[in-house]
Amino acid sequence: MPNRLAEETSPYLRQHQDNPVDWYPWGDEAFERARAEDKPVLLSIGYAACHWCHVMAHESFEDPETARLMNERFVNVKVDREERPDVDAIYMDAVQAMTGHGGWPMTMFLTPDGLPFYGGTYFPPVDRHNLPSFRRLLDAISDAWRNRRDEVEEQGRKLVDHISLGPALQPSDADVDESVLDDALGAMAASFDERHGGFGGAPKFPQAMNLDLLLRLAARGRDDAGAMARATLDAMASGGIFDQIGGGWHRYSVDRAWVVPHFEKMLYDNALLLRTYARSWLSTGAARHREVAEATAAWMLAEMRDAGGGFWSSLDADSEGVEGKFYVWSLDEVRDVAGADADALVTRFGLTRAGNFEGANIPVVAGETHDETALRRGVEALRARRATRVRPGTDSKVLAAWNGLAAAALAEAGVALGHSEWVDAARDAMDFVLSTMRVDGRLMRSYRDDDVLGPRVAHLGVCEDYAFVLEACLALYEATFETRWLDEARWAADEAIRLFADDDGGGFFSTGTDAERLVVRPKDLVDNAVPSANSVMALELQRLARLTGDDAYEDRALGVVRLLRDAARRSPLGFGHLLQAVDFAVGDAVEIVVVGDRTADDTRALLNTARDRYLPNKVIAYSERATDDEARRIPLLAGRAPSDGRATAYVCRRGVCNLPVHEPDALVAQLAAT
Asked: Which residues pair with 446 in a beta bridge?
């Protein structure tokens, strides 16, 4: 019989509905039972695309004897970390405090009051690699609970006290200046891989936020920053971490050279890298970077869209129980599929009989072919053959935060690369989030249209949901100049401040004032796989302040910057997005206003001029002829009208404006002065 997880929206939880384990979802029912039966809680956290989560499930959670021990001695709770990032953050901090490292699957043991007292990540079914078997661990924890209860509870209290200190940073009194950016560049240079690009050794992650920071520093004239970004983006685009056949990005590379990926595909990685490659195209004019951005967006639109307009969360690493099987090729299969075009594929992708991954080939860019037509035909043939294979599982839940990130990337990149259909997709995604996933004025975290249960929305949105929605709405305003998006941006910002702001300690909590009380109220501070909620708020509130003229937004943003300034100086690679907010704060951002008939050639020419160059610290507003209502919403438009009946551009910095101009060349000259 299916367990309680059969009623959950999360595909990850549903993967465990037929386990013999008596799983509970996170909630009061589980902890009430633990208190009533005086049992510890076994908390298991993972996500649908996690390879080792599947391994541990097959080895332990599907094993009847292991399940019997779990059911007799524990109350077992399963959590999807993507649906409950707040719960995940608290107990991941505890695991890292105990073991010095973290990851998923996460295995944590709690008192009935939620205090963590022991944990780790993956545990094998038998003793190996200095890890106890999962069953032996269950016996040991059960014994400690029965016979050393005082020790267990004291350990839990100490752990909670320790992780409670994590967010207790003090805002810096020092000025926020360019020295923080100089320090960050020095740290990046020290860890830069000169041979393969990227930072550090294997495993190697794309780190799009740090690459975005390097592009910003290059725009400041730091050629060394631009060289590191270009080398890394070139290397990643040539490796197996990028799906050379179908487009889109895998999660990370297990080697330094970007050849062998961990094959899961996450929506957030693809959104971040789409935006980074589009920005690099504007910055460098590198044709390959434009190609990669277009292939990434095409993959997102073709394979990750929900029927309602939102975007799904991820694709699994495995198919037919084998990691990467969907993506790899034998030389014989390539020759069979591509026929006369196979030689072009072999040359381009370095295909061999021995392969580069467990006897098979992961396509990488290994050489140039002189027959591009044959190459295109060959890639299409491989794509068609691959479509007949058993696909990796799709986590089809729609997350508000990740959809905000995807919409922001598609809107910005769509304008930069001239793809209006990307902007349309961004609009559809945010329309979906703000209609279906906003319930009684409260943004929710997760949605899924289930074949059995139907469409369901679940879990209160956390701060990152509001932060990324704010970012997406601002990106959509600058892509479409529809004022409704600015209104929605203000709504997201105001609600984030109301629900999450820490007026005493600074910054923003992850959970709202209306959320359940956890053992710690966490703060999302460090830029990891996605930008932290605090980093996004620090940047987007500054942009919102420039567009609305409301300095209170900027004050909130700079409060976050001051809170994290010293931490970012110590560990800049963990604050790549926050440092972009620093760059905006010290970068004398430019405000561009264009007025005129948008269907006219002269107006389009001015808008294109403002958009087709890499200016990271800018906001753009447009109106045909600003009405009083528009000027009230967007003070930058006040008094702006076409001069001499011609389309006109105004370039300002904090309200101090240059003379209006009508010609693109004159606008270029004013923007170059920034």
From this structure: 399, 458
